[in-house]
Write a structure and sequence with these properties.
Elements: H1 10-23, H2 26-31, E1 35-40, H3 45-50, E2 61-64, H4 68-73, E3 80-85, H5 86-93, H6 97-115, H7 120-125
Parallel strand pairs: 1-3
Antiparallel strand pairs: 2-3
Helix pairs in contact: 1-6, 5-6
Length: about 130
């Protein structure tokens, strides 16, 4: 018997993003007003190359744009955004709606860490790799 696959919709991502924001302290919540969250099918070849991802390695999300500190120093800042990649998330977690939601939430928090200036090493030390 085939297991049911759950699909990620923009509405699901928006609900989880709102849940993540609700749990942030008020001052951090205000600081992410200008961060857009977008759902894309999968990373582009250019994004994979920029991140030096080996073939076959899944990427669930990425942060693009100026960090909060960079934004504060800019006269005009281009948008900051978090991209979630539907196909890799569904491929690895689509069989379990609870794990899928948990991974979307974890990915959003990880990418939000980059917005606040945390490196991959910083996030690893915090247990958010």
């Amino acid at each position: 018997m085939r297991r049911r696959r759950f699909r990620i919709t923009p509405e699901l991502v928006e609900r989880i993003w709102e849940e993540v924001l609700e749990r942030l302290p008020a001052d951090l919540r205000e600081a992410v007003d200008n961060v857009a969250v977008l759902l894309e099918e999968e990373p582009s070849p250019a994004q994979r190359t920029a991140l030096e991802l080996p073939p076959g390695e899944n990427l669930y999300g990425m942060f693009e744009g100026p960090t909060r500190a960079e934004r504060e120093r800019m006269l005009i800042a281009w948008p900051s955004r978090i991209l979630l990649f539907r196909r890799p998330l569904e491929a690895d977690f689509g069989h379990d709606p609870f794990r899928l939601r948990a991974e979307i939430r974890r990915t959003l928090l990880h990418e939000l860490g980059h917005y606040f200036g945390l490196s991959e090493e910083d996030l690893r030390q915090l247990g958010m790799e």
